[in-house]
Design a protein that fits this description.
single chain; alpha/beta; eight-stranded mixed β-sheet; four-stranded antiparallel β-sheet; 11 helices
Length: 333
């Protein structure tokens, strides 16, 4: 296996929530002990329900907010130990594509200015060379030269996302963090953007952290998949292993929620019950036990299951994953 390009160890991020003026501040654990890695030219998919911490993790990995605990390493160098010039280079090499293609770009700037701004910040091009680079990027993402002097409000959502993609590519990064890049787009436009991202990955040799709540999109894009629940990774492994041989009940529930093309296709699985617990007061023990159809007390209610390698390169945090896996092989699930 290649050495990780980006890596985290026991990464956590807490926020202090002030419910009211006279209320006592409460601690919200948005991320709790995240350990993962991203290899060169790999796409790691990150999936989970809204509020599980996906976007917080994206911002941490991009260096936009600091962690409360744990380590983020880029090419083996701890981000918190980097000098100013090293951190500047890190920000060049790790770029983000945001979910909302309108609020993430300056509405007062023209398209050419938006895409060219990173070139100016990182002092990579100026004058004619800068304009040529911008036009080249616009062509790469499917925009025309006529769009150079237009404003964002003149474009559709899909076109604005292409502007954001071109801006992320401007500084020739090694890693693209795509935070729900297609969730705000129509289905037909989603397919175009996904295909564009895959083509750009191959052309430029990029690594992707691809975040989405739609598992069918994650499967199409990813080499490996990590499943998050309440700020923790509960399962991570190769794409086909996670989909075809899942080891966590939460992964099972997410996969069962994917719409089927033909009625009755696939095996029947029980849908997920209940609501996501509040991260301000998460359940004791396994945090998923309040919604898990296989939970057994008192073990699940009192003991936190560690994220362990259950199968080769396939990790899961469930006390009974081996039993569930065996039952699936016997056709009981």
């Amino acid at each position: 296996m290649k050495a990780p390009l980006l890596e985290t160890k026991s990464l956590s991020r807490n926020f202090t929530i002030q419910a009211s003026v006279f209320g006592k501040p409460r601690l919200l654990k948005a991320l709790d002990g995240i350990t993962l890695s991203l290899a060169p030219r790999e796409t790691l998919g990150l999936a989970g329900e809204s509020g599980c911490g996906k976007s917080t993790l994206a911002r941490l990995l991009a260096g936009l907010i600091p962690p409360s605990a744990g380590i983020i390493s880029f090419r083996g160098k701890n981000l918190s130990a980097m000098e100013n010039d090293e951190r500047f280079a890190f920000r060049k090499n790790v770029q983000m594509i945001f979910q909302d293609p309108f609020s993430s770009i300056n509405p007062r700037m023209r398209v050419g200015e938006i895409i060219g701004e990173p070139l100016t910040v990182h002092r990579l091009a100026s004058g004619t060379g800068r304009r040529d680079r911008i036009l080249e990027l616009m062509t790469k993402v499917g925009l025309s030269e006529d769009h150079f002097t237009r404003y964002p409000h003149e474009f559709s959502g899909g076109q604005r996302q292409r502007i954001g993609i071109a801006r992320a590519l401007a500084v020739s990064p090694e890693i693209i963090i795509a935070d729900e890049p297609v969730s705000a787009l129509d289905l037909s436009i989603q397919a175009q953007i996904i295909n564009l991202l895959q083509n750009l990955k191959l052309e430029f040799g990029l690594s992707f952290l691809f975040i989405a709540h739609d598992l069918s999109v994650v499967r199409h894009m990813s080499d490996r998949i990590a499943i998050m629940y309440l700020g923790k990774i509960v399962e991570i492994g190769e794409r086909d292993a996670v989909f075809d041989s899942f080891l966590h009940p939460y992964t099972e529930a997410l996969i069962s929620a994917i719409p089927q093309v033909l009625p009755g296709s696939g095996k029947h699985r029980a849908p997920l019950q209940g609501d996501v617990p509040s991260p301000l007061s998460p359940p004791a023990g396994c945090q998923f036990h309040t919604r898990c159809p296989y939970a057994q007390s008192p073990l699940c209610m009192s003991v936190i299951p560690p994220l362990e390698e259950k199968e080769p390169n396939h990790y899961c945090s469930c006390h009974f994953s081996r039993e569930l896996f065996r039952n699936r092989e016997l056709g009981k699930l």
